[in-house]
Specification:
The protein is of the alpha/beta class and about 280 residues long. About 35% of the residues lie in helices and about 15% in strands.
Length: about 280
């Protein structure tokens, strides 16, 4: 009888440990040894769009770039290196990126050289490796480009929609060049966490295309803060006036609500703001 009860207790304990461990892994918790479990919020911007320079009343008459920098919002900037090389005519420049990182933190990640579909495996691999070299050379001594953000226009074997594709030559080039990558694995997922270093997908977008309201932004961030261990990756592209309808630009009022909310949650010690890496 005693042996039976002991075996039952051991079995129950083992099941509890297994369940807790699985929950921790799925939530992105690094370990169960008392680590900081405050949720992490990552703001990811793609393409270095020049509309970040536009001033709007919601930001007190300054640009979104300046507004986020003044509020110490670290951003993972997805750099299309040919855009950053364009002296500001197409989008943000290397000088602006250095200014932002120095003032507010975050990182510059690779988003390829040209952000377009290539015609061969070799060209894709060159985009992967050359863009990291370009980021590091432009950002200056000591800067390491750790993350790769897959361009949306990449197709076939270059579109990392499954983990199996990480075994093809393009996927292997990503893994050998970068510490982390965001692809399109599970691109429609909106909950949970994907515990794969090269398979992380977007969680939410705050571009107009997502139809996310100010109230929705606040609810999303409150839920994130109330779920310890969560890593919420929020993606965006350009910035537009409140009421604008360009699919891949954030309405100014939505971006303002996002910044105000994360600043308040950070001040309350409920979340951490970080770059992707």
């Amino acid at each position: 009888m005693w042996k039976t009860m002991k075996a039952l207790r051991n079995t129950t304990r083992a099941r509890i440990v297994l369940v807790v461990t699985l929950l921790a892994v799925l939530a992105g918790v690094p370990s169960l040894r008392g680590d900081d479990l405050r949720s992490i919020v990552v703001l990811r911007e793609d393409d270095l769009r020049r509309t970040w320079r536009n001033a709007y009343p919601e930001f007190g008459g300054v640009s979104a770039f300046t507004y986020c920098m003044n509020n110490q919002i670290p951003i993972t900037w997805g750099a299309v290196t040919s855009v950053a090389d364009g002296n500001g005519s197409e989008g943000l420049t290397w000088e602006e990126l250095r200014q932002y990182i120095d003032a507010a933190g975050g990182e510059v990640a690779s988003h390829s050289v040209n952000h377009r579909e290539m015609s061969s495996v070799e060209e894709y691999i060159n985009e992967i490796t050359a863009s990291r070299a370009a980021v590091e050379a432009a950002m200056g001594p000591g800067y390491v480009c750790r993350a790769f953000l897959q361009p949306g226009g990449w197709t076939d074997d270059a579109n990392m929609t499954t983990l199996a594709k990480l075994n093809n030559p393009i996927g292997q080039a990503i893994q050998s060049t970068y510490d982390y990558s965001m692809a399109y694995l599970g691109g429609v997922w909106r909950t949970g966490s994907t515990p794969y270093r090269y398979g992380l997908t977007n969680r939410y977008s705050i571009d107009y295309s997502s139809s996310l309201t100010v109230d929705g932004v606040n609810r999303m961030l409150d839920i994130t803060a109330d779920c310890p261990g969560t890593v919420l990756v929020v993606s965006c592209h350009g910035v537009q006036a409140t009421g604008g309808t360009k699919a891949y630009e954030i309405p100014a009022n939505v971006l303002k609500a996002f910044v105000e909310k994360v600043v308040a949650l950070r001040a309350a010690n409920k979340i951490r703001l970080m770059g992707l890496s």
